[in-house]
Amino acid sequence: MNFTGEQIERYSRHIILQDVGAQGQKKIMEGKVLIIGAGGLGAPAALYLAAAGVGTIGLVDGDQVDLTNLQRQVIHFTPDVGKPKVASAKEKIEQMNPDVQVVTYEEMATASNISGIIRDYDFIIDGTDNFPAKFLINDACVFGRKPFSHGGILRFDGQTMTYLPGEVCYRCVFKGSPPKNAVPACSQAGVLGAVAGMLGTIQAAEALKYFVGKGELLTNRLLVFNALKMNFRTVNIKRNKSCPVCGEKPTIVELFDEEQPVCDLRKEKE
Amino acid sequence: MKVKVNGNDQALDKSEVSVAELLAINSVEMPDMVSVQLNGEFVKKENYVNTYLNEADEIDFLYFMGGGRRSA
Questions:
Q1: CA angle, corner A143, sides to A139 and A146, nearest 5?
Q2: Is residue A20 part of a domain?
Q3: Which residues constitute the domain of residue A163?
Q4: With the C-alpha atoms ordered A237, A147, A197, A181, is the resulting torsion angle positive or negative?
Q5: Residue A171 touches partner B, C-beta closer than 8 Å
Q6: In sequence order, what are the residues at sequence separation of 6 or more whose Cβ sits closer than 8 angstroms to the Cβ of residue B16?
Q7: Considering chain A, what percentage of its residues have pLDDT values greater than 90?
């Protein structure tokens, strides 16, 4: 791949970075990233990956843009309310950077479609908002040997780790979905919009580092941060022998769908 | 006894403290929402009650975090 004059200019701040350079930028432009969930985490991740010139960005989301999304899902604008999220995100990416090819999947990731979707991608970003989807992505990536970035947020807290085949997976840390009665009620949840931005941006940086091949990924460690105290910490993690999907005696040998309790603030208030 | 919880020193006035008690001391309201790592090894939930801490142990409480769109 040869850069055009315009590309050399557009990506000049990457190219002059010693650890990226023309070679690294070329790898980014050949990269294919799948973002599952075009919401709080997926929106900032998609924007930075698009700006960086990632060759192909896949977007998976079956939802439409809602007014309550706009507080943090920065790829969607007020006139987009009611539009499919993947269509809204695709429009912004194409306006921002015509070098990027956007592929949209207007559906939720499920046990029956996820393997076929992730197959075409080099790196997957988990930008979903519920545990069943997070475990499904983990299991599909473990089975399909695909690197992925896990991200979770709650109120002012965030956590993220980067899975590489053969290394610590999400189920090594969290075996399975917590009991439904243990999950905080919606009215106690909520999230500071900027926290989603911080985390999605870290996930994008991990994807770019993966392509460039420099530095250390958040592999075998979990980054946790609290934005109220602005405290960041990484916890080292070893592979868990009793992990249900990648341990010595795995009990999960195929993908499955779990039910997710539906939670809607407007309904709760009634 | 002194232990390290989430990277911070914590003094415990009892000499026998289980993981379950440490969770209570730290006001972890929903232990089901936490994974516990003791000196780099995960403690199974069923062993919280009978796993006791030793001087200078390092414990991490890792919280379940979903997304922010609806519930977590």
A1: 90
A2: no
A3: 31-269
A4: negative
A5: no
A6: B52
A7: 86
| Interchain proximity B62–A41, CB inside 8 Å | no
Q: Please identify among residues 10-69 of chain B the ones whose CB lies closer than 8 Å to any CB of chain A.
A: 30, 32-33, 35, 37, 40-42, 44, 60, 62-69
Backbone angles phi, psi at A129, to 5 degrees: -115, 15
Instruction: Specify if B69 maps to a domain.
Output: no
The pair phi, psi for residue A8, each rounded to 5°, is -60, -40
Interface residue A157 vs chain B (CB under 8 A): yes
Q: Which amino acid is at A218?
A: L
Number of domains composing chain A: 1
| Nearest CB partner across the interface for B66, out of A129, A190, A242 | A129
CATH number at residue A114: 3.40.50.720
Quick: pLDDT tens for A12-52: 999 999 999 999 999 999 999 999 999 999 999 999 999 99
Summarised one tens digit per residue, pLDDT across range A138-181 is 999 999 999 999 999 988 999 999 999 999 999 999 998 887 76
Four-point Cα dihedral A201, A66, A190, A136, nearest 10: -60
Residue A15 lies in a domain: no
Asked if this assembly's ipTM is beyond 0.90, the reply is: no
Q: Kindly state whether A203 is in contact with chain B, defined as any CB-CB distance less than 8 angstroms.
A: no
Which positions 177-196 of A are in contact with B (Cβ < 8 Å)? Answer: 178-179, 182-186, 189-191, 195-196
CA atoms within 13 A on the CB side of B11: 1
Looking from the CA of A18 toward its CB, the CA atoms found within 13 Å total 1
Angle ∠(A229,A234,B4) on CA atoms, nearest 5: 80
Contact (Cβ atoms closer than 8 angstroms) between residue B33 and residue A178: yes
In a domain, B17, yes or no: yes
Whether A157 and B65 lie within 8 Å, measured CB to CB:
yes
Q: Which residue of B has its CA nearest to A237?
A: B40
Q: Which two tokens stand for residue B60?
A: 């991490």
The total of other beta-carbon atoms located within 10 Å of residue A269's CB is 8
Residue A64 at interface with chain B, using a CB cutoff of 8 Å: no
